Amino acid sequence: MRLRSYRNFGSAGPEAPLAATARCFSSSRPRPLQQTPSQRVKLTSETYPDIKRDSRFSPLTKEHVAYFRGILGSDSAVIDGVTNESAADDIEPFNSDWMGKYRGQCKLVLKPGSTEEVSKILKYCNDNLLAVVPQGGNTGLVGGSVPVFDEIVINLSRMNQIVEFDEVSGALVVGAGCILEVADQFLASKGYIFPLDLGAKGSCQIGGNLSTNAGGLRLLRYGSLHGSTLGIEAVLADGTIVDDLCKLRKNNTGYDLKQLFIGAEGTIGIITKASIQCPQRSAAQNVAFFGLESFEKVQQAFREAKGQLSEILSAFELMDESSQALVGEVTKNRRPLEGKYPFYCLIETSGSNADHDSEKLGAFLEDVMEKGIVSDGTLAQDETQIKALWAWREGIAEALGHLGGVYKYDVSIPLQEMYQLVEDTKARVDAAGLLGDTDEYPVREVIGYGHMGDANLHLNVSTRRFDKRVEQCLEPFIYEWIEKRQGSISAEHGLGLQKKNYIGYSRNATTIGLMKGLKTHFDPKGILNPYKYI
Ligand code: FAD
Ligand code: MLT
Ligand code: ZN
């Protein structure tokens, strides 16, 4: 085992590799390598023939379209494939999900520009039994953001205003369609930061982030959106506007209704605006990237990081060797470390005093090296290297997408057993004869990465093509495995279509009953995002 002194971390010496210089590339849509234009993604209704269209919902007519045109006016706010067959290509991106796994048959996309327009659309849909799918940046990973059949897509992208910002309190009010990165760049100019960051930041919208209760890369530091959301404005299925757009941190007057919309995945209302408590942006940031010999050592490193870096620790992310090999294969970038290790960790610190942070980080690095917890590592020397190191973590999802179909499982498990799930799954897929290096095997690799700091593992089964045999090998096996450990089958991505039938592995009958009651209360006709969630 070769130990490198932390003083050489990230140095430009001949045997100390610099972090690769590529930027994170994860907000573009991956193009599965084995897909040619003629091999389009299968319709969800073909992949899952047991899901039947609810015959209560009315088919769309030209009269419906005319009504929506009357509300929305501008031509660009209505993409009409009902009366105009040539609109099919324009509608396609709204029908297909980011992973190329789900594909709906929607013929009408509406892009409202105000809360009042959303309200009029929903009232009409409710009165006329027209099913709808709220859609933000369409980066969701569980099939929640695209229709299954002919539901109308209500896309929030035009409602992208930064409404107001209080430079003293840090309260930001934005339209639901505001792109996360746009909000964060605005905040950066004011010395603040959005309390959520994730690889899809260039495409995902704040309404979508709230609706999935996205966790992301810095939940460890800033907590969940349940904590940082001050208020929400939403429209219910019958068109009622709920104005709960509080801008204060404290508000104990009655039930905290806004919380119900966070993580509801568009099933009880459409979020139109949000008020978010944003923290001050840290003046000093450091990123270190480690190679470790075992998952036991990863856990030790995490304990030491929490203990020694405490208030400046802002991220602790885990990657296994297979995930890094795949990112390298796709990006062709030079790996951050010379050697290969079974596990890698990315540690970020953010604080207000660069000298203080460097001193703390220096002491930490020396300690974990001396104790033999970490085998090798590199420390980013500037902003470019920070981004480059993050790309090896943030870029995993997109790299996988470029290699073919991915079966994604986003789970919480007690930390000690977190990586065991990857090993057990790999053994199972291998035993079923599905894993191999050549084209006859559907599975290319089973990999694990995730938000170690939140005990959140992303188990990904990378395939050459989606294949029912693989899905049947994985499900319900993975959900049963999680249930035995009292884990969560949905740590941060949500339920969507993928996990609708599996919620019972993580929630008991009483809880599910209460959830169903809520759904019926808010959306008695079931027009909002049908066939999904619960
Ligand atoms: P969409 O995908 O459009 O929608 C998601 C769900 O919310 C759907 O059910 C939709 O119906 C509903 N919805 C959308 N907008 C509204 C609205 N205004 N009102 C009501 N319902 C609405 N997730 C994490 O938690 N952590 C990560 O680190 C993370 N990283 C990612 C990295 C990549 C590269 C990608 C592609 C995805 C990642 N995700 C991650 C998934 C994550 O859920 C989304 O990126 C994001 O939160 C969804 O936002 P969106 O605007 O794209 O929503
Ligand atoms: C991540 O943490 O990278 C995201 O949640 C996306 C994924 O799981 O692939
Ligand atoms: Zn994640």
Automatic annotation (TrEMBL):
It catalyses: (R)-lactate + 2 Fe(III)-[cytochrome c] = 2 Fe(II)-[cytochrome c] + pyruvate + 2 H(+). Residues 102-281 form the FAD-binding PCMH-type domain. Its EC number is 1.1.2.4. The keyword Cell membrane does not apply. GO terms for molecular function: D-lactate dehydrogenase (cytochrome) activity; FAD binding. One of its GO terms (cellular component) is mitochondrion. Its cofactor is FAD. Belongs to the FAD-binding oxidoreductase/transferase type 4 family. This is D-lactate dehydrogenase (cytochrome). The lineage of its organism: Eukaryota, Fungi, Dikarya, Ascomycota, Pezizomycotina.
